[in-house]
Structure to design on (886 residues):
């Protein structure tokens, strides 16, 4: 039975931020022994016309953890968050409660609350096994399950986390869990960035004395690590019962920085519930619903998706057949002695023929199969571009495994996070890559590229060497994967947030390759210099040779004109692919070219540059270095590349406009626009209308399959079936050309409406004294003010002059510039005459003009400006804060 009574909990107005005291209530529940206990619950007391959500906390939290789930509940949803007995503001009981007893308690509490009809159960930490135990006993009520950083076992071959093992020792348990508030305080301090002080205080509030903390120690003692533990059978029963949920919609909300429920716990749950949707929040820790403020909203979107017939129980993609496998061109040239791969380094040039590459791929595919690489496995590649990487990639595809490419261009922090998110079964890497994988505790069995002493092999857990697998392999014909088999997990650059994993199936890769053939008009005699390293992987699939220049792949701006030319010489290249940052340095170092190198570059017939907008002045300068090349700047993104294409001649014919002209959509690609509202959002459906500014939406056969373990992100990007929302903002002109005006997250929402930054920046950059500009918004959304942040050109000579300076002149100019920037540390406001020139060029009202020595850009392309970071810096500076580097 249930009987409401006055709450004994101090939940008055303002006591706990974000918690409505009207939700707080006490109920009386009779337990299995016939004893009545007082439970505290948060209950929005809504008529559950649609359904009920039950939220179960773990240890050492309480129902406060679920306040956002109550606050954001849609109409027709009742939400009840319980405080388990002995926890939160519920009654303290004289005896410790075991897992089985807590499962029974929850069932009796749900019955006492009269929660009938369809229920979605939500649980965190050790509330997970309790809630799942209840769910297994009440399948008729269950509509869905949401799990947040929890687990149902210690995975085989693993040990419990150190924090739990230490806390379970009897002496420490009483000290840190009961007598002192160490355990409860530590739980609230795991987040980075730290939780607000009032939130941490609220999480600790029910546990102010040793008597009120006794159940925290009991909870820890009840973790069944030993085979004969009293709760071991109950936990194993819950784990085994998950098989009954094979058609039940499940969502996992996960914080990857959790030292307790680690990646092993997530992997174990995904193995038991392989159909589950996963939303992984990069940077979030154990208290994922606190660290990821969007978690509640994401959960409710998922629940709404269930009502629309979607969710994790949705059908798998239909099977289809490839017209040809991605390595068909390589197979066709298996007896060809002409160049397939040329690697340039300080040690010279290493070349391999198509016949040699095909034989190497076949042997390695056989070797990988022999050691257990299976269809569906994920294999992370920590290998420098060249023969070894190409061989490993195509061998994995041959056996049906998917490659994981988290390149060093992400930076070490995000590369490690990317690898963890992909959760590879295998890691193939050079020694330095495997050392990094070990340091960052990246999962997966290890294969080394190169040689390692036995001691280091053991230390790095290396089981096999690539050359050994090739030597032991034999030439066998593998059928190759089906169209719907996963081919790759690639990662976005992280220019507008944490890098996201992008899953491609073989069907999408094949469609992408066909478009690349169209853009480049690829002929069998072509050979490509891949100055953007990942593009080298396409060449065997295109049936053309590739050369990888001698440069640092993590710093594209280090590519010199001589390195580019040497690669062109080695391969007798006709094509070049390079990022804008690489092209800048090629132009700046072109005066070092000798006659042979210039002749090699004159044989280039086509150059492509992508990853960021390429300024017209830079393209014209590149044309001088590649005099016979047709210069293309295809537009696209990791999720869909290419989308459109444009040549230098077409850019010049288009003339200036509001943004960067990226040309017309390619064959088979449709582009539509979702119009902006007053706050710079794009809520509407994609429309085909010229002159309308909004989010660019793309439909094509080569659009990504999905974001990996990013359910909420995927739903936002594909909420219009058949369309991918790119996050870019632009418009279509009367000639059908697409103009890119910026990123949706970088729009400035003013009282006069939204402004897009790129067109304004381009106008400012026409000034000879400006090398680069970024326009950001400062202030509250809807009343933001426009602020320009500019970087003066070297010695005030203009971008064109600085790009063509000799190294000596450029160094002298930079020394002069650095002296100037030292003065900016005290006052980054532009001096009046410069500010006036910039305001006149911008053509929009600028609240301020700030000067800096460098604009923050992404690592991979060294071209995409981080306007979000600049906006924070500008707001800090204009608020009177100390001047720091942006």
């Amino acid at each position: 039975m249930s009987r409401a009574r006055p709450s004994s909990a101090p939940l008055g107005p303002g006591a706990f931020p974000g918690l409505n005291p009207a939700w707080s209530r006490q109920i009386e529940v009779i337990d299995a022994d016939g004893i009545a206990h007082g439970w505290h619950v948060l209950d929005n007391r809504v008529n559950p016309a649609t359904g009920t959500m039950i939220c179960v906390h773990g240890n050492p939290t309480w129902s406060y953890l679920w306040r956002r789930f109550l606050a954001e509940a849609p109409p027709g949803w009742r939400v009840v968050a319980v405080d388990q007995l002995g926890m939160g503001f519920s009654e303290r009981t004289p005896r410790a409660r075991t897992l089985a007893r807590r499962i029974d308690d929850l069932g009796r509490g749900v019955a006492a609350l009269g929660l009938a009809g369809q229920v979605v159960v939500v649980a965190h930490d050790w509330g997970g096994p309790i809630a799942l135990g209840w769910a297994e006993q009440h399948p008729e009520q269950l509509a869905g399950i949401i799990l947040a950083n929890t687990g149902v076992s210690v995975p085989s071959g693993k040990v419990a986390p150190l924090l739990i093992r230490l806390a379970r020792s009897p002496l420490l348990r009483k000290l840190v869990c009961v007598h002192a508030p160490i355990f409860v305080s530590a739980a609230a301090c795991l987040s980075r960035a730290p939780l607000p002080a009032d939130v941490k205080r609220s999480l600790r509030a029910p546990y102010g004395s040793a008597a009120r903390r006794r159940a925290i120690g009991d909870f820890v003692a009840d973790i069944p690590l030993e085979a004969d533990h009293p709760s071991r059978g109950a936990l194993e029963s819950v784990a085994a019962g998950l098989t009954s949920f094979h058609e039940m919609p499940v969502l996992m909300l996960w914080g990857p920085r959790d030292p307790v429920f680690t990646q092993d716990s997530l992997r174990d749950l995904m193995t038991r519930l392989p159909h589950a949707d996963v939303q992984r929040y990069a940077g979030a820790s154990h208290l994922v619903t606190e660290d990821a403020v969007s978690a509640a909203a994401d959960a409710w979107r998922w629940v709404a998706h269930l009502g629309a017939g979607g969710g994790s129980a949705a059908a798998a993609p239909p099977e289809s057949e490839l017209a040809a496998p991605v390595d068909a061109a390589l197979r066709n040239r298996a007896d060809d002695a002409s160049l397939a791969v040329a690697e340039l380094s300080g040690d010279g040039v290493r070349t391999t023929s198509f016949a040699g590459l095909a034989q190497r791929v076949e042997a390695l595919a056989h070797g990988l199969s022999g050691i257990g690489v299976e269809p569906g496995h994920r294999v992370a590649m920590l290998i420098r571009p060249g023969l070894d990487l190409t061989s490993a990639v195509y061998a994995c595809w041959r056996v049906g495994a998917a490659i994981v490419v988290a390149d060093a261009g992400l930076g070490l922090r995000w590369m490690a996070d990317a690898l963890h998110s992909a959760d590879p079964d295998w890691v193939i890497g050079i020694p330095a890559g495997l050392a990094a994988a070990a340091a960052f505790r990246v999962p997966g069995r290890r294969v080394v590229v190169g040689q390692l002493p036995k001691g280091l092999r053991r230390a790095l857990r290396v089981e096999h060497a690539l050359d050994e697998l090739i030597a032991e392999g034999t030439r066998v014909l593998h059928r190759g994967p089906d169209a719907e088999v996963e081919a790759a997990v690639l990662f976005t650059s992280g220019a507008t947030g944490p890098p996201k994993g992008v899953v491609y199936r073989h069907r999408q890769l094949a469609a992408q390759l066909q478009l690349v053939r169209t853009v480049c008009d690829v002929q069998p005699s072509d050979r490509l210099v891949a100055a953007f390293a990942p593009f080298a992987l396409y060449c065997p699939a295109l049936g053309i040779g590739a050369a990888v220049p001698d440069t640092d792949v993590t710093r594209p701006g280090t590519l010199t004109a001589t390195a580019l030319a040497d690669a062109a010489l080695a391969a007798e290249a006709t094509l070049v692919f390079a990022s804008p940052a690489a092209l800048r340095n090629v132009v700046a170092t072109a005066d070092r070219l000798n006659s042979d190198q210039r002749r090699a570059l004159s044989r280039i017939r086509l150059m492509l540059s992508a990853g960021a907008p390429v300024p017209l002045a830079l393209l014209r300068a590149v044309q001088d270095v590649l005099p016979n090349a047709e210069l293309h700047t295809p537009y696209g993104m990791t999720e869909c590349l290419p989308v459109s294409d444009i040549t230098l001649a077409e850019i010049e014919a288009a003339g200036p406009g509001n943004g960067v002209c990226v040309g017309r959509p390619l064959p088979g690609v449709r582009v539509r626009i979702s119009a902006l509202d007053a706050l710079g959002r794009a809520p509407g459906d994609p429309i085909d209308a010229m002159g309308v500014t909004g989010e660019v939406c793309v439909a094509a056969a080569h659009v990504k399959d999905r974001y990996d373990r990013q359910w909420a992100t995927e739903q936002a990007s594909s909420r219009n079936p058949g369309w991918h929302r790119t996050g870019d903002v632009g418009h279509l002109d009367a000639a059908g050309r697409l103009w890119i005006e910026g990123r949706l997250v970088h729009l400035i929402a003013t009282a006069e409406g939204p402004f897009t930054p790129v067109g304004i920046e381009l106008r400012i950059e026409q000034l000879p004294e400006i090398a680069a500009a970024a326009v950001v918004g400062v202030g509250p959304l809807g009343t933001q003010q426009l602020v320009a942040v500019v970087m003066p050109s070297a010695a005030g000579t203009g971008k064109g002059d600085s790009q063509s300076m000799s190294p000596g002149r450029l160094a002298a100019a930079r020394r002069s510039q650095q002296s100037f920037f030292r003065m900016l540390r005290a006052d980054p406001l532009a001096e009046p005459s410069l500010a006036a020139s910039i305001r006149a060029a911008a053509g929009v009202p600028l609240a301020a003009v700030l000067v800096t020595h460098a604009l923050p850009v992404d690592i991979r392309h060294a071209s995409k400006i981080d306007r979000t970071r600049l906006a924070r810096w500008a707001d800090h500076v204009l608020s009177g804060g100390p001047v720091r580097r942006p």
